[in-house]
Amino acid sequence: MESPIRRIRKKLSLSQYQFSLALGISQSLLSQIESGYISLSKGVVKALSQFDFDTKKLVSLQQKFVERRRSEWNRKLVAKLRRDGRWNLQ
User: Fold this and answer.
1) Which domain CATH number covers 57?
2) Within a domain: residue 66?
């Protein structure tokens, strides 16, 4: 599963550093967005509009990606807690 933002960056043949400069954000923030840790801010969406992409569709796809990642992390956390005996629903 790959972030829509990462796919766009790769399509533009830009490194994270180059793309983050173009968006006016830190490379660290871009990495967090691409990993699904955080959602897109209005400022980032506005910066993305300089590229020729449908930003509404991009925001929707990225939000779905973030939701899937969070759900995946939650499932893994619950499984780990159950394995470790720290998840008891009694």
Assistant:
1) 1.10.260
2) yes
